[in-house]
Amino acid sequence: MFNPQRYFSEDLAASSLIAQLFAIGGFILALVLVARLMSEKRAPANTFAWLLIIVLVPWVGVPLYLLLGGRKLRKLAERKSRLRPTLPGGTRHPQPFAHSPTTQAVIAAGATPPVPGNRLRLLTSGEEAYAALEEQIRAARENIHITAFILGRDDTGARLVKLLAERARAGVRVRLLLDAVGSMFSAGMYVNPIRRAGGEVGVFMPVLPFTSRGSANLRNHRKIAVFDHCTAMVGGHNLAREYMGPVRHAKRWQDFGALLSGPAAALLNEVFIADWCFATRQSDEILHAEISLDCINEVQGASELQVVASGPDVPGDPLYEGIVSMIQEANRSIWIVTPYFIPDDVLLRSLIVKARSGKKVTLITPRSSNHPVADFARRHYMRELMRAGARVLLFGPGMLHSKAMIVDDTIALLGSPNFDLRSLFVNFEIGVLVHSSPDVLAMKRWAAELAQHCSPPKPGRRRRNRIIGNLVEDVSRLLAPLL
Known about the structure:
Blueprint: H1 4-39, H2 44-56, H3 58-68, H4 74-82, H5 101-108, E1 115-123, H6 126-139, E2 143-148, H7 155-169, E3 173-179, H8 192-196, E4 200-204, E5 224-227, E6 231-235, E7 257-261, H9 263-280, H10 284-288, E8 303-310, H11 318-329, E9 333-337, E10 341-342, H12 345-356, E11 360-366, H13 372-387, E12 391-395, E13 404-407, E14 411-415, E15 419-420, H14 421-425, E16 429-434, H15 437-451, E17 454-455, H16 466-479
Parallel strand pairs: 2-3, 3-4, 9-11, 10-15, 11-12
Antiparallel strand pairs: 1-7, 1-8, 2-5, 5-6, 6-7, 8-16, 9-13, 12-17, 13-14, 14-16
Helix pairs in contact: 1-2, 1-3, 2-3, 5-11, 11-12, 13-16
């Protein structure tokens, strides 16, 4: 005789068993992810944030970590560690002059040695940067290699797409590499004019369809443009109106970069080639066969530069270790210019110790950035610096997107990395250490001029919603390592 209660009980038991199996499986997966998380060399705050979300909310934390949590592409990093980046064609590195502790620390972490014989020109405005970029695109005769995080669907982006298509049609080998997330709406049909003209467009680690090549969180934040192998642009500029353009724009951000020529440009080209071949699965032999070695062996100037690629494709963290070393080696002054200031405990404590010991520590950051969460998260760190005697200056009105660090009159850093946990530990980034004193002094003068457009933070006022403000700040600090 049919017994509904019996069948209902059996279905309930089966559902309960399935739920238990899922719970056990989820628990085991969470343990595996925690073990993997602990094995990665992360900032403590980043590790703690991921541990919290995986352990306390596993049904959210586990899939989120699988999608966003990876930090290193181990196979790629291992392959690159066996083949340290070098000048193409077996060209020997010129003997560097710099032998500082920072130089050695960065080399030991996986970067190339410094190379002399370069010429360096600072680009301190969006109009200057665009003019240099367009001039070099028009002057290129063999190759144009550009990596960008953002290509804007605006007048600047459209003008560059048209220009690159013209150069491809003229027989120049044009390769444009765009990040799949940063250029989500411009890496498709928008750049078809370049493809139709014979140029190539690569998309770096598409999120959809999802692949196992790496975490969707690992983005290519590098900004590199190389022309005929031996002239290059590097810095913070993306290919959009906010960052650069042929004429002044009222809402243009304050950004910073450099145009350089010489062996350092050839090393930047090697970074592009590695990224391009990873994204497109092309053979690097094809790109290396195009390289002419003539300009690499020519002395272009007196600048000594050290190219530092950092990210998931590098076994260590050379940019982070270089910054730590620069701070520790400072004898007189430290200038930091960054749009987002979210250091880890080591960097913050190092800066505090330097400020307390009488060194002049200056931080320049925007009064209000384009990421409110980052602005809330930075407040604690800025207060700690000011209590130690450091000078904090807020740029504005307008957005500051410049990234630079200058120590004494001896060494400086420029490139794509922000002074935050994502840039230092997650993103693909590119930096150039400047070892030649005249160039360092030029960067220091630029930072001092930038400071003229800044003011110190206003003393905090009592607010009715102070409790809510403190809560938002604390939550922002907790979430900052995941952003």
